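Appendix B. One record, verbatim.
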Amino acid sequence: MNWKKIKNFIMLGLLFACVIVLPAYARVYLEDFEKSTMFRPGYDYVGGGYINGTYLCPHSASTIHVQDGALYYDFSAEEKDGNWKNSIAFQKYISIDQNSYVDFTFTRDSIDNTGVYLCLDNWDSTGGDRSITPFHLKGDTITLGYSDNGGGETITYTGLTGHVAAYAENLPTGGCRVTVWLNGEQVYSYVNPYYTITAKQNQIQTQFVAMAKMDVGDTLPTITIDNVKILQDEGMPTEAVYAGDPELQFDYENGGMFFMSENTFPFHRVKSVRQIANFSHQVQTVENVLAQYGDADRYKIQKETLQPGEVLVAELLDNAADLDGVKDVKSFVWDKMTNLTPLVQGFGVEESIAKADRPEVLAQKLIRVGDTHPRILTTAAELAKVEQYKEDETFADMYTSLVDWRNTQNSGSYMTAGIPNHGSGTGSICDMIYDRATVWGYLYQTTGDEQYAADLMRDMVKVAEYDNWYDEVNYGGNGRFLYTAHIAAALAIGYDMTYDYLSKEENIVNRDKIVKAIYDKAVLPYLEFHRKDNRIGWSRRSDNWNMICNGGVGLACLAIGDLPEYQENCTIALNYALRGIRYVAEYFPSDGAWTEGFNYYPYMMRHGTDFFVSLINTLGDDYGYRDFAGMNASAADAIKLGGSKYMYAYSDAPMTPGKGTPFMLYFAKYLDMPELGYYRREQFKEKFAQVEAGTAQKKDLQSVLNFRDLLWYDSDYSNVPQNAGKAGYDDAFGMPLDSWYQGTGIVALHTDYGNSQGFVAANYGKNNDWHNHTDMGGFVYESQGEQWFIELGYVTYGWPDQFNDLLYRNKPEGHNCMIFNPTGANDPDQIVSATGSLVAAPVFGENASYFTMDLTNAYADRLNSYKRLIYLDKNTQGFAVKDKFSLKGESNEYYWFAHTKAEITIDEDDPTTAILTQNGKNLKVHVTGGEFTKMDAVRLFQFDELSSLSDPENPGITKLVVHATGKSGNCEITVTAVPLDDNDQGTLPDVSDIAF
């Protein structure tokens, strides 16, 4: 028995429902019970085995198989012998320390040949396997309290429906008491001296069985077990602990570590809580319930009473207070129980706003939609607005530019790669077919030119003919499902956009080939992936893979799910996608700034917003995803987290131009944020004017133009935003000038959002989250349209050990950070698991803005304390960074680093002053508390010859450095900078009066 897998089942919740129907065969949708139950037809463990990760114990020659997303139990004629053998068992493994409360209803359509029972199997290592059956209905007889040690009373019951509650509690004298209620009346109370609720490996099996007494030729009855509720008391919390590193798992065999990725809810919604439950069949006061737990004064509870079996999430006052001021804690709190499973699970504190229809409901909705196309990214009604919008000069220019871009693409057949790859430039089939499906599909719809559809059909057929849609050579199996989902979404969009062309008689064969490929090479592998119960996969992870893979296949299911031959599995897969994306949506910090950086964020959200829009257009419902505050708060991040040159390259992001994303118009349209539409429109106008003037090339328009800009365009975007010019907002675009991202731990400051703006951003949040670098305290600075202090960005994909913390670009000395007492190439220079905070809320002012980071945790092994002030002068675009730190011990060494593309000239007579020169512009920099030197952007200590690690080069990058040795006690370094005017004049900021 795979105990580790079984214990993982526990994490999916306390409340669930089960419906078992026995028509000509017993049929149970796997997604109804997946990962939380086991199916056991019959009573005898004969011929048991695993099917898609579910353990099956068939009776005798019974045939069990999985087909079309359903579990089939086929009764053979030989088995229909009049005995009670033909049954389906619905089993739930739970972890119990003291008590168990089970509550359910049943319905049957006959009496004589039906049965229902509830059984508790106790895997007791001291006394062997034991079981007790509080409720056992066969025909018109109920046996109560039967166990393998005898006992039991019988009563007659002829009802077709019933409500059953059973409570098993351990007794101080040994054994346990079992109490059963039927339809609200107590019918049984019995002390079993042999049975205790102390489970081997903390496992109690709660089993519900629906039975049918059958003879050959009999019509099988219908039996329903529903509204199942299981409560268990897992003992008192002993202390509040932090857990939740993204790489940790629940290791059931070695101490029980929390696997954040699978059960995540975001750190910004953390509370220290405890679940309490009314383990009785009467209404109880909260005071009486708490008396069972002790320390009643620790709980903050508004309610006065609890109903029988009711669970209440109560806040612990003292532990909750421990979180005061910890705004950016990476981990979250759960209560350490006497066993491994916390009662408050992934989304238990605040119920997720995401929802999902059951597969059969989704099927009905898709049936109602029928073969109406296009229907996913857009609709015929939306596309009809194109002619109206062409009267808008900017839209007309955008549309013409999109047509020009398409015409630059080689119309020949060059979709020839045998293995889909991704992210490798022009050779990427995934990206290529996605771009063509969206652009050519849109242009076919808006021009009626069938050449677009013909070219797209040709390429989709080529991709459909690939053996598979993942890189089997390099990654094996379905390991690179990112490719699969990418292509599935592309072909789904292409199929939807060109449906009428594909449905012409001469094209139907190709249409069917495309659809079958989507189903066979994406939908079925997607279902297989889920049914393998792959705990460490992308399906419930809180990173970009989740949204891309779930969203891509979900979008494909919306496109082809109305087709009868594919409908059942498509709706099952769509249900998975609707439920799965919530893990990444919940992980968004409530104030934006996606933790993986501005490389993964736009890539992820492009696929995510395509899926959300497709849900709205196809089913008329976004299933709660438009209401996720964190995603919505990220809408303007492409503006607020970048300067006029580059995006802030925090985490694994390249140093790349930014200022906009093609899905900005999604937020503008669907969330009523017209200022984003205005910004995106103005971006294009500016770049188009440069092309017209000859100062930019047509290809440069691609950076500020995407077909989604036309797809979600609105003529109202020409209106100046209402917040433009208000205090704290940009004069032109109405965007907040300064932003504090408490969840990720970033502050960004702007003088304006023009092309010569002053811009500063810095990171204090955490070193060890998805794709984070070890760089707490790192900053960037830009003024006069030049980025003076830069982030080097990510280590190029394909580089050996790309994510190793010891590589130069991943560690503090490769960022604009300080390092203390470096010991060698294997020294990470900061504590890799550290998180930081702000000393106080940032000061956002009209003349200057600043904030102070507490970075002590990152250097706790080397320093007593460390705080860093970051300052931006709104009038001069001057910049300051001030460091105050307390060194441990004597004779310490430290380095202060700032990377730049500029030429550095250090005053020979006064090494406290340097001039940085770039593109004919000058920046004066001054240091107090040290002297400047400069270094190439290379590591202090080279890797050993035996090391497998090596660094990519950083050509054209130099470091401005402050270096000191022999230091002890309290130290300060202040570096100030100001852009110089044409007369080489500029006033350095003065931050001496800012106390921290």
